[in-house]
Amino acid sequence: MPEQIQPDDSHFVAEYATVQSIFIRQRNCLLLRADFTPLFVGYYLHLMQHGLRNAEAEDSLFKELLAFFTLYLVSRPWKEHHAWTCNVPGERPTNYFVAGSSLTEDVVGRIFTENVRKEETGMLYAQNICANRDTHTSVISLPGAEVERWIEEFFQHSEQRQARAFRCRGDEYALVTAEPGADFDWLTELTADQVANIDNTEQIKQLETRRFTFRCGCSAERILPTIRAMQKDFADLLSEQGIVRVSCPRCGAHYDITTEMLTGTNTGPDHCH
Questions:
Q1: Percent of the chain having pLDDT more than 70?
Q2: pTM for the predicted model, two decimal places
């Protein structure tokens, strides 16, 4: 029989990023890691779909924040929903918003550069939302401009435990958190190269995996009730132009709302994917 030719899937990119949760036995630490290429592809497809574009420096920072935030979600219980807003001062103050949940296995976010309040120092505002429980909010100052340090500071003050954040090779990111009885000296001295080779140097056990996509799920239909409640505020625009352009506060997707949509005779554009 002729030899079967295997399909070339080297160009294939999965639709989701798989986050591994790994226990490092003798160090009593939890390693969370993933290749975020698929999630970043989903993010860029979203920008293309809605004609959005971010400045390169802001875009790079946002992707790092999105990656570490996703790793943080996997360190938390399944039923929680989290949202962070990072206010970064500078010549053009910027807000970076990310949100997500392991229940839906998705994350979303956007960058705000207009009408952003200018703070003297960077601030991170974090919300932890869980059914049948009061929302927990924490606020910390951001040290410097490196996202890795932001994450470590957040763990120290909000989670009250030590953690180390690393960008490894390509789009691979890792988060190592201290568990009860952790080897703090080892964790403090840990490097990105050591994390990349940890399979060969430490006794590890994979606990679980979770799969995340970049997805909002917003739509004109979901936005319409809010616009109907504020219709008086948009009355002039509707009478002059016939449309009101609104954007989703979570992902920045644009929707043109018409008078027909408000009256229910036209359902409007597709969902945000």
A1: 86
A2: 0.88
